[in-house]
C-alpha cells in the first residue's frame, strides 16, 4: 500500500498542538510522529506542511443535502463537494426530503443515493412521525446515526406534536434522538400577535403583511426565546423520564443552556447539545444587512444570546458545533419572515469561520477541533474516525493561517450558488482534505471521481 508522509505540520488533536508528522498507509493513519521522529519505513510521497495545522476531518452531524426530491436547490454530489472543500470529511443527512426518510424503503433508498453520489463519508437519520415509532426496532443501529425528531415545524413539515407520540418515541428506542426544539403553538400565537401589531401600526400595508412588508427582525420575535425553551425543556424532561439518549440541535438561546450539564465527562452524558455556526457568527443586528439570507429555524437572536452560546462552547455546556447546512435558491429566500424559506448554506466555510473566532480570541484551535471533530465521533460512537490516531481512518485536513482570501460567488460549490458570507475576508484557508487516505481536495479542486464510505457506529 502507498505510504504518504505529511511532515512539519502543527498537529491539533485531543487537546494538544504539537509539531510533528503523520504517515498515511492506504486508508488509515499508520504513524503519528513527534519530536523529530522518523517513519518506520520510507514513504513514497512526502507533503511538506510547514506553516499548516493538521486536524482530523470535520464531522458535521447536521446537514440537509436535499436529495431526493429537492435537487433543484442542492443535491448530494454538489453539497458533498462543498463539504470536502471546507474540510468536512463526514456528514449525517436529515430526513426532510421528498419522499421523507420515514420508512425503511425510503431509508434504504437514501443510503443507495449517498453511496452513489457522496464525495465524503456519510450516514443519515431516520425521521420520526406521529405514528412510525414501531419501525425503530427494525433499524440497523450500526448504520443509522439516529432518530430525527421535529418538535417544531420547519422545512418539510415533519412536526411531531402529539404527546402520546412523543412518549412512544422517547420510550421506543435506544438510538440517539436528535431533536429540533421549538414550540409550535407559541410560534403560532406570536405570528398572530406580531402580524396584528404590524397591521395596526401600518394599516395601509395590510394586504402585503404576509409577504415582503413585515421586517425580517420579526422572525426572532415570532420564533422566540420562549418557543425554544419550552420545547427544549419538554424534550429534556421526556428524555430523563425515559432515560433516552437525547441530542438537542441548534441551541440558539442563553436560557436553554440551563438545561444542560458540564460537570460530567462527555462520554457519560445522556443529554447533549449542539450549536450551529450561524448562531455563533450572526446576531439580530445582522438582519438589516443580510435579511432573509440569515433566516433560519431556530432564528438568529440577539448578541447577548450569541455571546452566551460562545461561552457555552468553552464551558462544555455545548458539546458539538455543526452547520445545519440547508441550501435554498435565492429566489426562495425573497420576502419577509412569513414568506422566505428558512436555512442557509454553511458547510463550505464552517471550519474557516470557527478558526476566525480563534483569531478573535473567542475559542482556541484545540476547542474548535474538540467540538467539530472529536465530540461528534464520541457522541455518535463513530468507529475509527474523529481523531488522529494510528489505525484510524485517515480523514485529515490541512489548514493554513495568515492566508488572506475573500469569499466570492465563483468559489461557492453549493448548487444554490450563494452564501451569507460572500464578501467576507478570511485569514484561514483549507489547503488539503483527505478522506480515508485519499487526497479529496487540493489546490482549490475536488476529486469528483471519489466516493466516501458509509460511517459505522459502534453500538
From TrEMBL:
Give the cofactors, semicolon-separated. Answer: Zn(2+)
Q: Which CDD domains match?
A: DHOase_IIb
Any GO molecular function: metal ion binding
What keyword terms does UniProt attach to this protein?
Answer: Hydrolase, Metal-binding
Q: Where is the Amidohydrolase-related domain?
A: 53-439
Q: Which family does it belong to?
A: Belongs to the metallo-dependent hydrolases superfamily. DHOase family. Class I DHOase subfamily.
What is the protein name given in its UniProt record?
Answer: Dihydroorotase, multifunctional complex type domain protein
Q: Which taxonomic lineage is given here?
A: Bacteria, Pseudomonadati, Bacteroidota, Bacteroidia, Bacteroidales
- Gene behind this protein: pyrC
Amino acid at each position: 500500500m502507498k505510504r504518504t508522509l505529511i511532515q512539519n505540520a502543527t498537529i491539533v488533536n485531543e487537546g494538544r498542538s504539537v509539531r510533528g508528522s503523520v504517515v498515511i498507509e492506504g486508508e488509515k493513519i499508520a504513524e503519528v510522529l513527534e519530536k523529530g521522529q522518523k517513519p518506520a519505513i520510507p514513504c513514497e510521497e512526502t507533503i511538506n506542511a510547514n506553516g499548516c495545522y493538521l486536524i482530523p476531518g470535520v464531522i458535521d452531524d447536521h446537514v440537509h443535502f436535499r436529495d431526493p426530491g429537492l435537487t433543484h436547490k442542492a443535491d448530494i454530489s454538489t453539497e458533498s463537494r462543498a463539504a470536502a472543500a471546507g474540510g468536512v470529511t463526514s456528514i449525517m443527512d436529515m430526513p426532510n426530503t421528498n419522499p421523507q426518510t420515514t420508512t425503511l424503503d425510503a431509508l434504504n433508498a437514501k443510503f443507495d443515493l449517498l453511496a452513489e453520489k457522496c464525495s465524503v463519508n456519510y450516514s443519515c437519520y431516520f425521521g420520526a412521525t406521529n405514528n412510525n415509532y414501531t419501525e425503530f426496532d427494525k433499524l440497523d443501529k450500526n448504520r443509522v446515526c439516529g432518530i430525527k425528531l421535529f418538535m417544531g415545524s420547519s422545512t418539510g413539515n415533519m412536526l411531531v406534536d402529539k404527546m402520546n407520540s412523543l412518549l412512544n418515541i422517547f420510550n421506543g428506542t435506544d438510538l440517539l434522538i436528535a431533536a429540533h426544539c421549538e414550540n409550535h403553538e407559541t410560534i403560532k400565537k406570536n405570528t398572530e400577535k406580531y402580524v396584528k401589531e404590524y397591521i395596526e401600526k401600518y394599516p395601509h400595508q395590510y394586504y402585503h403583511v404576509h409577504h415582503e412588508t413585515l421586517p425580517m427582525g420579526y422572525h426572532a420575535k415570532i420564533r422566540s426565546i420562549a418557543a425554544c425553551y419550552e420545547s427544549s425543556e419538554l424534550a429534556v424532561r421526556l428524555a430523563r423520564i425515559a432515560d433516552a439518549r437525547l441530542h438537542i440541535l441548534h441551541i440558539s438561546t442563553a436560557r436553554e443552556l440551563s438545561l444542560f450539564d458540564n460537570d460530567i465527562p462527555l462520554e457519560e452524558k445522556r443529554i447533549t447539545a449542539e450549536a450551529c455556526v450561524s448562531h455563533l457568527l450572526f446576531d439580530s443586528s445582522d438582519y438589516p444587512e443580510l435579511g432573509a439570507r440569515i433566516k433560519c429555524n431556530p432564528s438568529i437572536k440577539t448578541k447577548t444570546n450569541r455571546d452566551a452560546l460562545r461561552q457555552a462552547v468553552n464551558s462544555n455546556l455545548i458539546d458539538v458545533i455543526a452547520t445545519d447546512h440547508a441550501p435554498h435558491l435565492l429566489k426562495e429566500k425573497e420576502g419577509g419572515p412569513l414568506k422566505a424559506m428558512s436555512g442557509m448554506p454553511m458547510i463550505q466555510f464552517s471550519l474557516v469561520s470557527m478558526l476566525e473566532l480563534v483569531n478573535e480570541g473567542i475559542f482556541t484551535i484545540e476547542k474548535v477541533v474538540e467540538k467539530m471533530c472529536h465530540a461528534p465521533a464520541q457522541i455518535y460512537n463513530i468507529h475509527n474516525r474523529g481523531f488522529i490516531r494510528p489505525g484510524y481512518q485517515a480523514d485529515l485536513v490541512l489548514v493554513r493561517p495568515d492566508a488572506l482570501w475573500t469569499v466570492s460567488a465563483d468559489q461557492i460549490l453549493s448548487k444554490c450558488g450563494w452564501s451569507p458570507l460572500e464578501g467576507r475576508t478570511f485569514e484561514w484557508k483549507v489547503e488539503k482534505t483527505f478522506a480515508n487516505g485519499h487526497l479529496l481536495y487540493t489546490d482549490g479542486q475536488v476529486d469528483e471521481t471519489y466516493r466516501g464510505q458509509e460511517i459505522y457506529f459502534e453500538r
